[in-house]
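Before we proceed, please read the two lines closing this message. Report back on whether the structure tokens fit the sequence:
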Amino acid sequence: MADPFFHTIPAWRWALIQTRRDLRATSMRVLLVAVTLAVAALTAVAFFADRIERGLSRDAAQLLGGDAVVVADQPLPDDFARRAQANQLRTARTASFPSMARAPDDLGGEARLASLKAVSGGYPLRGQLTLGDLLADGRVQTRGPAPMGGPAAGEVWVDPGLLLALNLKMGDAIWLGEATFRISAVIVNEPDRGSGFSTFSPRVLMREADLPATELIQPASRVTYRLLVAGPARRGDVGAPPNLKAAPAGEAAAQSALRRFVQDSEQAAEKLRGVRVETLDQGRPEMRATLDRAALFLRLVALLAALLSAVAVAVVSRDFAQRRLDDCALMRVLGVSQSVMAWSYALQFLLVGVLASALGLMIGWGCHHIFVHILADLVNVSLPSAGWQPVLLGVGTGVLLTLGFGLPPVLQLAQVPPLRVLRRDLGQVRVLSLGMAALGIGALFGLLLVVAQDLKLGGIALGGFVLAMLVFAVFAAGTVWVLRQMAQAWAGRLPPWLTLATRQLTAQPGHTIVQVCALGVGLLALMLLILIRTDLVASWRAATPPDSPNRFVINIQPDQVEAFQAALKQAGVTQYDWYPMVRARLLSVNGQPVRAQDYAEERAQRLVEREFNLSYAEQVPAHNPVVAGRYQPNEPDAFSVETGLAETLGLKMGDRLRFDMAGVQHEGRITSLRKVDWASMRVNFFVMAPSKAMPDWPSTYITAFRMPDQSSLDRTLIQQFPNLTIVDVSATLNQIQRVLAQVITAVEFLFIFTLVAGLIVLMAGLMTSRERRAREWAILRSLGATQDLLGRVQRIELLGVGALAGALSAAAALGIGAVLAAKVFDFAWQAPLWWPLPGALAGALLAWLAGWWSLRGVVQRPVSLTLRQAE
């Protein structure tokens, strides 16, 4: 007769009672920890990755001088400024163009080409323009942030190099067109200076109201007009209080207004020639690429943490179900229906999922605050507040993991036959069922869509892990077969501990294969992240290493080469880029004249209307990898083209290009394509000829080098070679390196989550075999095996399985990492082919440590107790 208890107690209360009881068991605690860790990693990413990226983007916006910039080659219509004001956005104007700066006749009358920039009130909108004083020994002493709106009337701020070139000092007068101005400060850092060659002339910055007096702008003048647009001031902007904090509602409203302005302005710019809108995405591609790679890596960390947690939940849930078989058979005998059991377990796992989600949310929230505190000290800006989306993501992920990966094997408990109370071989948990596969795959697919936010990233990660698990299973099965054949061939000649270890691995091949796959997946995630993180950070640091060039010098004449290089050597500069440079205009492609109207894309139109920087070298530059064709030294009439230019202009291998170089025309065939990193702070060119010399080309030379500390080399070069243009890019380099440091800190912090998740998978894979090992070793001990012998067998078994899983996972990590590097992160992959060897050693060590922790006490457990529990 059925017990009425199971018919009167509500299912939710029964689930609550079971949850409270089962949380005392190791398997349920591991499941809870795995889901909690996944939720913590995901919500930490959701809480602070978005805040970090927005904060970094905002900090990088200082390189634009605003949140958005409207650029034109003619005075902008007032509609753009009115549109910004209607959206309650701040504005400032700049006008820049090359012009001659001249010292007064009584001070020598020297003249120098300069880049003149006139600014309006409110400039700069983002960041700070820093001023300084030029000391007698040529060094610059920083004074502090410049006041908003530019110099005072009748004054200018200049680059230090201009004073050296004109033999002027602070307080002297300088001629600009038809007006003279007093030099009141030198420029230490200009936030929106840019990094192109158009900004390489020494800067002269003046007030907009003083520009008409110079009479420099004439109908044929080439002036670049910019309208800077930004939302409310933030901490770090000029004039903003140090402790300024933006309200979340105000920040959201400002972002919305900025998006409306950009969208409307882009539509208006399409109707005007020579007008474009720049944001962080378009205006600073080198910063955007770094931030995009960082966001992808953060999502990869969260994705792998979720995948590892899913594996851990699936493995532990099967062990949980296996331990509950006898209890469920007894309940079936007492009259509990399958539907009641299914509902109770579903509610139980839902409760565990909600509990794990709550714990994960609290941990993720705390970790994100710790990290934001670290970054706040680093970037010295306030970060935007997080919304409610991470909370929904955390709860949804926790429930999805628990129900999608944990519930399928547990639901099989409802199908346990009552006859199992008499026959223990009935009702075993199946390895795989159609319903379990459908739920697991559906849950995994949904999780990837939510977490990855990138189908390519999610597809490569998921496909790579699925393929790797199949390979792991095949290799593990093959290894078991080889061990069985060796054990039979060497029967009686092996030491007892090795014989027992071999029998442990071959007696139940299914358990060995599952164990290798579980260990392999955990190690694969760890090794993949180590490889990607190492190469990703290395690529960032390699782009702008501490010894990156901070000086560019152009217009070096051929007869000045020996003297210039001697001056560098005397100053202690031994490493520098050195290339000839030719200004050329593209005339035709495959015999067809090139016209701007033939291209729909604005960038392509600008490229064909401008002059290119060409060069030639017998060997391809080391920082320009060839991605197509061959860079054949001294091949006649050959061109190597940058991949971005080829893509923009629709060029392909074999196309013939004709250039005009100051009246000298040259035609060549595209024989190779080079990948150029324009953010590398190195000398790069759109087109190069693979030749040692091109005597017909009207060449000058360009170089880039690192200025020695406390050196007066700038003054020496300007005095010895007055025709040179020396560009100091230290400020731009420092800004880029500071942002990279922030990104690397974020990457390394999140990396910890997946390390812990991988260790949990290792331990879960071993803990599921704990009771089976206990029974087997109890029988062996009852037959006379010593604890020392069994301990040695355990170590050999764990080391062998770990080494196999480590070697396989390292090889798989190399393959998946290569695909991710090429297809997702877009950086050069330096594949360490020796990686499987340390992978095997690391796998063996981790498996032994995890096994020692999870299986501790099994060998010492009393034999009678183990056998009595087994009955």
About this structure: The CA atoms of residues 379 and 742 lie 7 Å apart. DSSP finds 25 helices and 22 strands in the chain. The first strand starts at residue 68 and ends at 72. Residues 1-6, 283-287, 376-381 have pLDDT under 50 and may be disordered.
